[in-house]
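Handover notes (outgoing to incoming on-call)

Open items:
1. alanine--glyoxylate transaminase: sequence verified, structure written out, both below. Nothing else pending on this one.
2. Nothing else urgent.
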Amino acid sequence: MAARERLTAISKHLDHRPLATPRSPIGNSPPNNPPFPSTRSLYTENKPKMSTQPEHPTLLIPGPIEFDDAVLQSMSHYSESHVGPAFVATFGETLSMLRKLFQTTDTASQPFVLSGSGTLGWDLVAANLAEPGDDVLVLHTGYFADSFAACFETYGAKPTQLKAPIGSRPQLPEIEKALGEKKYKILTVTHVDTSTGVLSELKALSELVHRVSPETLLIVDGVCSVGSENIEFDNWKLDGVITASQKGIGCPAGLSISMYSGRAMDVFKSRKTPPGSYFASMKNWLPIMQNYEAKKPSYFATPSPQLIHALNTSLTQILSRPLSDRFAAHQEASQKIKKAIADLGLKQLATDPADQANGMTAIYLPEGVKAPELLPNLFKKGVVFAGGLHKEIAAKYIRFGHMGVSVTDPKRNDIDKAIKALETGLSDVGYQKA
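alanine--glyoxylate transaminase structure tokens:
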């Protein structure tokens, strides 16, 4: 992305227009209009104290999400050496906990935690598992498949996109047909596409890939799914899952998190050419990750100790109860939200319930309602939703993120508050259910 495009994207908040930024931005206000009222009373009036955090509008976009107090307090950890014994122990424990989150007990599986965004995960895959000239099949369910494909092209691989209609996903028969027509080194799937709220089914897909094209690596973009959707890394025979800290995992942004199978690491180790990246090179990072998990100091590039502490705290909280309970809570909240949306006479981008994510919902706007009118109205009620992102229909919908503590903390009232705000906000801008 050109520097000028990045600067433009950074300035955008709560708009109906598509953005040229990688991960779930919220849109921008119309030109020459102040974006939102700045008075704190707009979102503190009649608001119960939810935590020790300063009063703020509840962030219900598909990431970053609301964070638990203890996670944020971990960020204030005093400065310490990134190769000192205390931090090394924390980082090592964090890597081991990630194995539990991804549900892998295979000692050949390899976690990576690098300073960066979820987008860095694309580079790890494209720079290390693909080589120039390799064919890659990218299953397309929205904005992020386009970006993943562009990343592969950057490193010289040859991506082919298998596209589905907006709000749907490629079906198994057409995937099988594509795999039968060409030998693909890698197949990628976006588990939850942040631009559409479409959920892809992984277990059946993996069974298909291993049956039809067993040498093909199955790589999952789980940036908007890890922590809110069930992922059984070993049982489903996945080869890689990339994610980020600021969504379902519930940690501030700044960490690229991923897990790779022993099979994927063997593919990396047998590559014929050096990795195409220096910072994103597994050659440079693999011994670092292995040493940290073994509680041995090691160095390639400086990690963020404060973010690692926050991730450690978040993972400790997540793993303090069965993962099945966490995923059930997200499913229950999602069903409640989707029923409320239907009761309002609204439609989702993902029309098939089997394709609907549990951590976010993409909602078509009613005829005549515009995001630059509705989103600031919701802000006044203390709720922040995201604008549309899919390039073809960005002006026609909004996105509601519901993951992490907003779902799992019984002391919070985020979901009910958001549903009520959406109902009254639509009324305020003139919508009446038919």
